Amino acid sequence: MDETDEKILKNLLVDARQSARQLALKLGMSTVTVLSRIKKLEKEKIIHGYTAIIDHEKIGYSMTAIIEIIAKNDKVMDIEEEIAKFENVCGVYDITGSTDTIIIAKFKERKELSKFVKELATIPNVENTITHVVLNTAKEDFRLS
């Protein structure tokens, strides 16, 4: 990956809907070059797909929870794989420190969060969970710019 690939990625992060032609004009290169580089980035799994950035609150997901998981018996990876299957889970992170895993998940109501936390406790080798409810989101944007 070189500087040109980085420029392409940064532009796609801002607007993935722009055409290769528009991107080529903006970057001062041919459309064929841009297309071939994008295909290469897709093939190398640097680009996994294209998606819309939505306002979760406007579609009813008004609660964000950050949940710490403490595992037992060195089964962290198994637990993380299981948690990653849940539909409302946005992120699963294997971390350092006294907690093994951090989860970020979205919920429409408190009952959903309660049910989710109780389901986590039934996953084999989950020793403990610590749930934090987000009160205010100052920034939520995983795009690098």
From TrEMBL:
InterPro entries: ArsR-like_HTH, AsnC-type_HTH_dom, Dimeric_a/b-barrel, Tscrpt_reg_AsnC-like, Tscrpt_reg_AsnC/Lrp_C, WH-like_DNA-bd_sf, WH_DNA-bd_sf
Record GO biological process: response to amino acid
GO molecular function: sequence-specific DNA binding
Family matches, as SMART domains: HTH_ASNC
Domain HTH asnC-type: start-end pairs: 1-62
A GO-annotated cellular component: cytosol
Pfam families: AsnC_trans_reg, HTH_AsnC-type
UniProt keyword list: DNA-binding, Transcription, Transcription regulation
Protein name per UniProt: AsnC family transcriptional regulator
